[in-house]
């Protein structure tokens, strides 16, 4: 690509995005762009010249089309917009986390954000519970104990349809032993629960759920009065990122073979 800076290119793509989006469907004429964008011919001429000068579009036999570089830049631009939109919608979750909490911004692109509020304080938990009840296998990292989720896990395990690999913080393990020892012992004895514990290393809980048809991943965080938000996504990039995070968390954990 020729001329200008990255910032100038991003500004130009943002400014001319409606025209570029029209070209995503394939080559077209300036007259068609005038009609579809309800713009003047002079505006379209100027836009095409600007985009052509940085190799984003090209003209051939009176028709305008995206270049390969143009398509890649446009896809990257849309990916950035989606990620920023997701981060903004997930701010209710992020405000409860430290600034250095590990996150891949692309995790938020296209994500479903579920916030608790005064009328629906349990919405994040309900969302997680529904996913767990649909899953065949779940890998999870837990930083707090939520009775509703314990029920979802134990029901799936005892029904013989759910396999779980879970890393919990040492504090969560202490709570499970003290307050849910019977359920803990029974699920461990079933052979369908692999439980590990370690010191807290990530300031939020997360899961990777293999459901019929797709994999779904989510991140949850708690405030002083319970879970405040959940963010779930089924995009392969989001799944891959949380897969890697789970592997790093599990690497430092100790197996729990039997409940005391």
From TrEMBL:
InterPro entries xref list: FilR1_middle_dom, HVO_A0261-like_N, WH-like_DNA-bd_sf, WH_DNA-bd_sf
Domain HVO-A0261-like N-terminal: 13-86
Superkingdom as given in the UniProt entry: Archaea
Domain Methanogenesis regulatory protein FilR1 middle per the UniProt entry, residue ranges: 121-251
SUPFAM superfamilies, alphabetized: Winged helix' DNA-binding domain
Protein name: Uncharacterized protein
